[in-house]
Amino acid sequence: MKQIQAVHSEDFKSYDTEKIRERFLLDDLKATDKANFVYSHYDRMITGLITPVNSVVDLGNYDILRADYFLERRELGVINVGGAGTIVTDGTSYDLNKKDCLYLGKGVKDVKFSSKDGSNPAVFYALSAPAHTSYPTTFASHADVFSADLGAVETANQRTISRYIHKDGIQSCQLVMGLTSLATGSIWNTIPPHTHDRRMEVYFYFDVEADQRVIHFMGQPQQTRHIVMANHEAVLSPSWSIHSGAGTKNYSFIWGMAGENLDYADMDTFAVGELR
């Protein structure tokens, strides 16, 4: 499992394009028929992508966890962004269509991922954070979770935000997770810009067409940088960094956080005019 260490905000100011991509971009998650995971030292978040095409994929164990099994001291949130798939947890089967979510609590031992049709495979995006207690494995369909329409056509950020794992939804120790889909003609996400002093965040972009890109903005509000991202790539956002994006066409993304609380609204906002 690849590891990424934390970066100081002052050091970040001197980074060039290559170093920003090396330290924050997760672009090697696409290999099929295996679990592709990256271990981040930001709140010990693990980010991964599992695309079963020809075989069932097990949630394995890794030396870095120093555990008897992956979820011995962790929790896991999974959202499917591909074709229909199935997750089997300790013998119980859950079918996930596109944008459905499954939360797996601390103590789940045996986890298997598969696709209904290898020609249109499931693409399971997963986030895992340390957990101090056990919450029950919980399924949520995209149609049943809390959703809100925000933004406007005039500001090119008309979007629908769906919340899955949060203090008023699926219960967890510290994981918060949901997704945002932009309407046709809208390209801007996460307005107003903000940081989370008490949490880190990961963005995973999907439904980005092959010839399109998302320009993801990060850094301190007065010292912004950008990183160009393609489909099925993720980016780490430290607590000191904003996290906004503008695409060459509309797209969707999954947001996930870990840290001190489960309050979706715990953020420090900045006016667009403050950005530099």
TrEMBL record:
Molecular-function GO term, any one: 4-deoxy-L-threo-5-hexosulose-uronate ketol-isomerase activity
Reactions listed under catalytic activity: 5-dehydro-4-deoxy-D-glucuronate = 3-deoxy-D-glycero-2,5-hexodiulosonate
Domain of life according to the entry: Bacteria
UniProt pathway annotation: Glycan metabolism; pectin degradation; 2-dehydro-3-deoxy-D-gluconate from pectin: step 4/5
Residues given in the record as Zn(2+) binding sites: 194, 196, 201, 243
Keyword Isomerase listed: yes
Cofactor note: Binds 1 zinc ion per subunit.
Keyword annotations of the record: Isomerase, Metal-binding, Zinc
Keyword rRNA processing (UniProt): no
InterPro entries listed in its UniProt record: KduI, KduI/IolB_isomerase, KduI_N, RmlC-like_jellyroll, RmlC_Cupin_sf
Broad EC category: isomerase
Enzyme Commission code: 5.3.1.17
Function: Catalyzes the isomerization of 5-dehydro-4-deoxy-D-glucuronate to 3-deoxy-D-glycero-2,5-hexodiulosonate.
Family: Belongs to the KduI family.
Protein name: 4-deoxy-L-threo-5-hexosulose-uronate ketol-isomerase
Gene designation per UniProt: kduI
